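Appendix C reproduces, verbatim, an entry submitted by the partner laboratory led by Prof. M.T., so that reviewers can inspect both the input and the predicted structure.
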Amino acid sequence: MTIKGVVPPVVTALDAAGNFDRPSFDRNIERMLAAGVHGLFVLGSSGEVVFSSDARRDEIVDAAVETTAKRVPVIVGVIDMQTERVIEHARRAVAHGADGVVATAPFYALGGEAQVRRHFELLAQAVDVPVYAYDIPVCVHTKLSVDLQMQLAKDGTIQGVKDSSGDDVSFRRLLLANREAGEPLALLTGHEMVVDGAYLGGAHGAVPGLANVDPAGYVRQWEAYQAGDWATVAAEQDRLTELMDIVFVTSGLAGFSAGVGAFKTALQLLGVFETNRMPEPATTMEGANVEAVAGVLRRAGLLED
């Protein structure tokens, strides 16, 4: 399986009581598939993986696999603190139909790069689907080095990387090292606002949370990249960067509540989600913050007055 192109990290819909909202979740998937996305990443950071019980994770994977119905690959986040739990999640995800699994470095009991390498090796030995590394040091407090990622690629442990490190220098070095090695890895950026730069460096795709809100824009950008139309790539990035203001215009919120909260609020305003309910203890947007998000959507032409 090759992952490339636009692979949105699917936002998890909740109803007013905090239960999984399957109809809203399905509408969002169908909307993204209709826009032409090339894969789906469920149970990532935007997908509330760390907020979800094992039973909730199973619900989400089942829904994604059933609704997608093999139209595009579905890769599943198996994120947890240490290796045994990650392997448990991975085996469950594969049993429920995952086409690949996505794991971070272990977190909590930190032990250095040798242990991180062993973590990924054990995971790859435990499942028979591709393993993708998720580089997100802001959450797991370990940055995956270029050397480590290339070692894991060359021995076949990982097949790709979702880079959410915020370190564009490191990602560019990884793109070059991967190219020199014959491109064993599919390299995708997780940063909504610098996708054009990643493509200029030769990235194989993007995993932008904002693609839940405007999947068609990211697909147009990808298609322009494939055609070598760099003016359109840049123009779409400028427009999407302005749309990303939905995560900056609110007040009194931070982190997950501001970021994923803005995505959920936008999806509710667009009629895709029934509610913008956040998992506890995150704060659900209301009042002036909802109107602030609506204002950005109106300026972007996605929401009528």
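The radius of gyration is 18 Å. Additional entries are available on request from the coordinating office.
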